[in-house]
Amino acid sequence: MEILPAERLELILEFIDDKGTVNIIDLTNKFNVSKPTILRDLKELEKQNLIIRIHGGAKSKKLKGTRFEPRHVIKEQEAIQEKEEIAQLAFKHIYSGETVLLDSGTTTLLLAKKLAAQCTENITAITNDIKNAMVLSENDLIDIVVVGGQKRKGVYSLNGPFAEDMLRQLNVDKVFLGTDAIDADKGLTNSNIDETNIKKTMMKIANEIILLADDRKFNQVAFSSVAGIDALDRIITNKPLSDAEMKEYKKAGISIDIPQAKN
């Protein structure tokens, strides 16, 4: 199947960030397109300040030592089974009559899909993610509140002061939160400051804070601090944590959920 130009840009960016430095021949062979096409794509990525053009190729602008944020189309292709398992466990924590808040992200998108397909009782779902809202709208039992704000390029989240002000007027039973990274010492961290601010607001209005994080996110640190681990009530992940990690999270009063077969 032919890749759309926008999708190819996302994949080229991921490839450059993964390799660090690439040349034109690498890219034409990898994506099976002509040299003029690759040059146009690199020009566009440079225009968006996502790469550095060098003679005969391109160089990544990814920060070393901290997790960077891939574009949404890339995230959707990563760890699909693991995210499905997490979403299925998260679905079991949503009960009739509750008001739940779904953060932006690919794992919460899978949770939204499960709600749309399997929810048989009335709930209210709030989200700042356009894709989440579209999926949730397929089930008439779900009352949907979309938090308005400014859409970020490459993702589907709505952020900024308008979104944060709207959230402050609400109270929810549970927030299902995503993160770019989590570490027992550094806590929850994120790659984008606007995302960080809205996550902080989400946590303030929720009675219960549930983090959805696949195993790749643990023992990682991203650019901007969201909260310490003691702010969390529950973590839902796909693999058992190490004994040392489990001790730290249990000490912070956090419940850890993993698929039953992996306990």
From TrEMBL:
Single GO MF descriptor: DNA-binding transcription factor activity
PANTHER family noted in UniProt: AGA OPERON TRANSCRIPTIONAL REPRESSOR-RELATED (PTHR30363:SF44), HTH-TYPE TRANSCRIPTIONAL REGULATOR SRLR-RELATED (PTHR30363)
Entry keywords, A to Z: Transcription, Transcription regulation
Gene: srlR_1
Protein name: Glucitol operon repressor
Species per Swiss-Prot/TrEMBL record: Oceanobacillus oncorhynchi
InterPro entries, A to Z: Carb_Metab_HTH_regulators, DeoR-like_C, DeoR_HTH, NagB/RpiA_transferase-like, WH-like_DNA-bd_sf, WH_DNA-bd_sf
Domain HTH deoR-type: from-to ranges: 5-60
SUPFAM superfamilies: NagB/RpiA/CoA transferase-like, Winged helix' DNA-binding domain
Coiled-coil regions listed in the entry: none
